[in-house]
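INSTRUCTION: Work out how this chain folds

Fields: amino acid sequence; protein backbone structure tokens

Chain under study, with its fold:
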Amino acid sequence: METITGLPFMFLILCLVTREFLLNSDAQLTNCMDSDREALVDFKNGLHDPENRLSSWKGSNCCQWWGISCETTSGAVIAVDLHNPYPNNYDESTGTSGFWNLSGEIRPSLTKLKFLRLLDLSFNTFDGNTIPQFFGSLKNLQYLNLSNSGFRGPIPDSFGILQQNLTHLKLNDNALNGTLPESLGQLSELSTFDVSSNKLTGVVTEAHFLKLKKLSYLDLSSNSFKLNVNSNWVPPFQISSLSMRACHLGPSFPAWLKSQKQVMSLDFSNASLSGSIPNWFWEFSYPLLRLNLSFNQLAGQLPSRLEFSALGFPSQVIHLTGAVVDFSSNNFSGSIPKPRGINILDLSKNKLSGNIPNNISQSLVFLSIAYNQINGEIPASICNIGPYLKAIDLSNNNLTGSIPSSIGNCSDLSVLDISNNNLSGTIPTFLGQLGGLQTLHLHGNKLYGRLPSSFQNLSSLETPNLGNNRLSGVIPPWIGKGFERLRILSLRSNSFSGELPALLSNLSSLQILDLAENQLVGSIPPSFGHFKGMHMSQAQMINHYLLYRPSRSGIYILGGGNYEIVGSYYESFVVNMKGQPLRYTKTLSLVTALDLSGNNLSGDLPIEITNLLGLLVLDLSSNQITGHIPESISKLKELLSLDLSSNRFSGAIPQSLGSLSSLGYLNLSNNELSGPIPDKDQMLTFNASSFAGNVGLCGRQLAVKCPGDDKNGKPDKGRTAPKDAGNGDSFINKWFYLSIGLGFAAGILVPYLIMTMRKSWSIAYFDVVDKVVDRILYLWLKYRTTK
């Protein structure tokens, strides 16, 4: 479950009420049955309990043991609740470390608890364990929660035996595989069923729901299910919360949903749906609080007004929150609908056009219409009626005009992204009123003038990107004061002049500084070697999404899983690395970069720069920097990309440069360097283009002999180079590299030729390649220091 709004909050309350109903505190005054106590002792002996959570499991009265509840009259054990009470704290400094987890073997002695109604082992670490078949022998079991506990293997068929009593079955967030047993369709009392985020596969048919007349909460998300039901199928249940994210439901919109009258939460995202949404869907008065149809191929126009009925809601839910609606990443066209009673609205990555409606915000907390074809001006009413907006993303459209002053009324705003439009004018001073602003993206417009001094009030700012505009003036020194949380600062591709402010080094959290392509002069301050955020090695850094989640009374956003969280803004940034722009999102918090290229900087490169031990990208190209490349540059062990081209560096290339084993891109071209190019280690991986335009350089990379080389280009004893004993090693090396090339070609072309025989195979193949590359990138950034 990724978002808790009014509906899931209500289900959470219902679950807690159910648990309390099944757990009777008065039972602690009753003595437990001897057979139950013996069964619990044997069950405990199979568990690994490092934190001694079960220390109270001693003495004759097991009704007083931690996690145990008994029936008041007979003393029979009716509940075993051993869920981890601290599932989101595996940090020892909090006193609630991961040692709270239970693990080990689940022994069949549990079956001797003949009157057991509730069993909760969630948020523990039973890694490698399969769910025991003998759970089907617990005939009185009503509530079973094994979620988030590392269980593997198939779902037992024996669960179908529990058809007379089982009401809650939660198996989500494990590593279960196999298919969904049809016997589950016999659980006539089941109201809550959750198997989301597992590795289950196969076809789900009408038989799986045959007798589930009381089902109100169903989550099959994040598995590999394919739903195959008759086009005229009418489900036996009336569902309230339905999630089939990442299941195959398409291609057409499910007609059986028409029979459901009480849907409060619906998630059909990434479900292979295409075509238009049928009219009956908009005509029904669904009491929806949450609707997610993102990442499909749905097309057609949305209704002019988006409004969902509140009929049938408990009063305590209605006043808490409006609806959450996500139609992003589809093919919807036409104009933007006007929302009513909606808190979170995501229409990004569609084909919508026209103007932004007046008074669109109203009750909105989050609004995204990014990556569409919207034109016209940003309406002056953007924040007049809805002052509760936390995030506005209007980026990558065709908006014109200036930034309206009413945005200054959005006092709660955390995210403002209006980048990549055609906005003009100066940056308004009223943006300085947004004291809670964390991310500010104005890049890719036609804004001009100076940075307003009111920006000094934005103490919460983390990721300002003002690049690719027409801004001018000096970079104000006050940027180096009062921005303790600043992670990224980009002013690239503007017309800033003057010298680099030495005070910028006070930005202790800064990981990316991009001032490229301006008109900056003077030398690089030695203090630029003191950016603390660039000192940490990758092994010391922790990767986490840079995202911002709207929060308002009654709205709670929970993380989890590998899917996007509805109503969250994910920070991304383009870094010029290895000679090309690369966009980072998932691993952005691991990226460190210093880009001062394309200016008129002069003087020597301060040796202090080599103290930035965590730096991945250093680009000082296209300046007038002089002097030697410092030998201590070898301290930058994390460097992936180094560009010092088109400067006036002189002297020899440091031999130590070859020790940078992570360096994948090197450009020293068009300088005044001289002497032999180091011909060992990492330096052998770069070709002539890395060293061109240095008339004094020589070496095998340039095919230019150095003084003292013999007629075969072999260096004399006074030069450091790999020895060639004349025994054919160089010939073998050539065949080694040739074999790599042939192997790479075969590895790509052979599967391609095979896949061209069937389109479905090729799609699956390249989808896997894409995911593997993304994973390799993450692991490379995070763990390469351990090699």
The mean pLDDT is 84. The longest strand covers residues 199-204.
